[in-house]
Amino acid sequence: MTHQGNYPSLSLQSYNYPTRYVRHRHFLGELTEISTDLDKNDATFLGGRGGRNPVVGESVAFEACNWRGFYLRHQGFDVKLHEERPVIDPDRPPTYRTPESDLFHADTGFHLVPGLADSTCVSIRSVNHPDRYIRHRGFKLYLEPANDDLARADATFRITDGLVPGPPRPDIR
């Protein structure tokens, strides 16, 4: 993956349904065909960790381009769009962490690995459940093991430029 910084705009195209993209709709992760401006916005994410996320390693998080502060997260192994709720306490430093914030960061953290069905693509492996990947089943997104050929194909994506541009990077004038 060649995206750099915290503001690249990207979209995730399905490997086995190439006319469909990962998107959020009604705060749930789905795989849909893209036909409207709303579809394009819902299928565009900002990849990066941001300065507040303590998950270590080369993990990424997928922030909704049109719902800033909301990230793809697994919860109960369903993929959802969920708001990051930072701890607001004037007596605590901005880096203060709670069990809830640690879980949120772990649930939104993913490793991009060579695609399980095609190594020129990517699969998106969970940080805190490393035996599970984002995959589509019935065009809904789940965090599941990829134990067979269908599951491996369902868990493989192409990273494309965002269907809409992201915000300007702060280091480019």
Brief rundown of the structure:
It contains three helices and twelve strands; from the N terminus they run E-E-E-H-E-E-E-E-H-E-E-E-E-H-E.
Search tags:
mainly beta, four-stranded antiparallel beta sheet, Trefoil (Acidic Fibroblast Growth Factor, subunit A), two-stranded antiparallel ribbon, disordered N terminus, 173 residues
Helix content: 10-25%
Please compute the radius of gyration using only Cα atoms: 16 Å
Query: Could you tell me the mean pLDDT?
Result: 86
Poorly predicted tracts of residues: 1-6, 50-56
Strand order of the largest sheet: 5-4-1-12
Structural write-up:
- This protein has helices spanning 37-42, 99-107, 149-154; strands at 9-14, 20-25, 28-33, 45-48, 61-64, 70-75, 78-83, 110-114, 122-126, 133-137, 140-144, 157-161.
- The protein has a single domain (9-161), classed as Trefoil (Acidic Fibroblast Growth Factor, subunit A) (Trefoil), CATH 2.80.10.
- The strands form five sheets. The protein has a four-stranded antiparallel sheet with strand order 5-4-1-12, with no helix packed on it.
- The protein is mainly beta.
- β10 (133-137) and β11 (140-144) form a beta hairpin.
- The longest helix is centred in the middle third of the chain and has 9 residues, at 99-107.
- Residues 1-6 and 50-56 have low confidence and may be disordered.
- It comes from Lentzea kristufekii.
- This is AbfB domain-containing protein.
Describe how the helices and strands are arranged.
Layout: E1 9-14, E2 20-25, E3 28-33, H1 37-42, E4 45-48, E5 61-64, E6 70-75, E7 78-83, H2 99-107, E8 110-114, E9 122-126, E10 133-137, E11 140-144, H3 149-154, E12 157-161
